[in-house]
Amino acid sequence: MKRIRVACAQLNLKVGNISENANSIIAAMAWAEGHDADVLLLPELAITGYPPEDLLLRPAFIEDNLAALERITEASGETVAVVGFVDRVPVDHQPDDSVPRALANAAALIGNGRRLGTYHKALLPNYGVFDEARYFVPGAQVDQVWAIGEVKCGVSVCEDIWAPDGPPTQQAKAGAEILLNINGSPYHIGKGEERAELLASQARASSVPVVYLNLVGGQDELVFDGESMVFDATGQLIYRAPQFKEELFHVDIDIGQDQPAVDLRPRMSEEAEVYAALVTGLGDYVRKNGFSEVVIGLSGGIDSALTCAIAVDALGPEAVWGVTMPTRYSSDGSISDSRELAANLGCRFDMIPIDDVFAQFLTSLAPQFADTDPDVTEENLQARIRGAILMALSNKFRSMVVATGNKSEMAVGYATLYGDMAGGYAVLKDVFKTWVYRLAVWRNRDGEVIPTDTIDKPPSAELRPGQLDSDSLPDYDTLDGILEMYVEQDRAIQDIVAAGFPPTVVARVAQLVDRNEYKRRQAAPGVRITAKAFGKDRRIPITNGY
Q1: Global pTM?
Q2: Are residues 234 and 292 both part of a single domain?
Q3: DSSP run (H or E) holding 73
Q4: Catalytic residues, which ones?
């Protein structure tokens, strides 16, 4: 009976930090060698980090990545390591078009100080957040098989395994006895189940085991959830690594034999999974960009409360500073709720009243505003004063401002440009308001952290007397249902109406979404948790007559 010990390094790497990434890879190789692994899998583009985007256009970046591969190769031992890197492609192998590309998304097989083989990713995703065709030439040899010990192995990269008759299938037909797939597969809700079904189907169709190794950690808008998996030849899951955590593990796989499960970590609930993605995305964005503290404007509302809870869970209470900035329209309850939230979380809390500042603005503008009625202008002034104060604290104390707006607000323009949109990161940017409530309730599952009053009270910006969100927006169940179809599914207005939503409400929401594209272009980046987030996923022209 043939047996192969496959080790996997589910690592959190940083784009562009080639030297440290190489150190992490070498450390994982030493661990695998110490556990007598036959082969070690490392993530897609592990050396450069994923996705490197236009760093790939810099020749020095490519050279540094290749030099790191040489250093890693020299450190290799008996365990064969499959290392993601960027390879150069000879000019005569470029595609026959006008785009000068000479790079491949590659995996190197190394061992005993030598390069044993190289695989070039064949299927280059060019949809959603992916634009690999911008940089890479697709690999031409898709049926390569390498002998590792006495087992014939097929190696592929991420998207290669998503096509029904893709490279892994061709490798199995060419004699591969196990399929090894390295990934930089970003998270969105439902992605884990989709992957598991796909991989199980691949194992069953090819009648060989499948090992899927994924990246973990946050990179700008993207979050990689790990959850690496191993399937036997019948499609049965025999190992599942944790979600959103680094892990080194190995699995002994008997070729041609059914196997019992080794370790199946339970999958998180949907709320726990989304919350973990937000914590991971914010935490890595802050740490990887060199910040040690964040500052958050606390309004007493549910968005800022959830944002603060996520920040504390991501960074620790000592790294979070909550600031409430009341005006004449702020209720006593909002101030006390903000104070109670900070006390529950154990983070710093300050109150900076801004009514005097607001009054001075109104006095200064009185000649120009004469003979006009108060409107959204005065409301936005309050938000912009708060934004200026938060940015002043950020500049003075090097604390990154975390914006608190959610996806529903971003969609319809109910977030103030240069006001509550100010910040370095917007952790709720891809979280609909209905999901904000779900997550707040989930966060309180073991005891009240977010005050119950914050969750229960009608949402309000408190920028004028008695103001409620419901004054100008439909209820959030209706709004989010329309937004999901219009923004995430690109459905036509008539389709949304046919689904049961009121025609006048649908038309108004669609108009709000369309005319606020300019605001979203100026918004801070934020964690992507859906299949279509504002940003890379959705590129609508600002000047648009459709």
Answers
A1: 0.93
A2: no
A3: helix 59-74
A4: 44, 121, 158
